[in-house]
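Continuing from yesterday's entry. The apo prediction looked reasonable, so today I'm repeating it with zinc ion included to see how the binding region is handled. Same sequence as before; SMILES copied from the compound registry.
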Amino acid sequence: MLYINCPHCGMRSQNEFSYGGDASVKRPLLNKEVSDQEWDDFVYNRKSLRGKHLELWHHISGCRQWIKVERDTSTHEIFRTFKADEEVV
Ligand SMILES: [Zn+2]
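Holo prediction written out below.
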């Protein structure tokens, strides 16, 4: 079982969270002309990366906040967690 350190609540079981997808995807700017390919890339197209990856998780059974989790997709090791609006460097 995974344990995720929610930046708002502390260490919690993965059972309290819902996976939300790739956190590195950037939404196209508002009021900007967007091609079909750019929109497809934002909505549908994802790389299935192996290794360290930044993901969105929703603490659905806790504080109900979205957070970012830096996790290795092959070992499930969690390195760091961030508030959703934190810039990750
Ligand atoms: Zn929380």
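Comparison notes:
- The radius of gyration is 14 Å.
- The chain is about 10% helix and 35% strand.
Will overlay with the apo model tomorrow.
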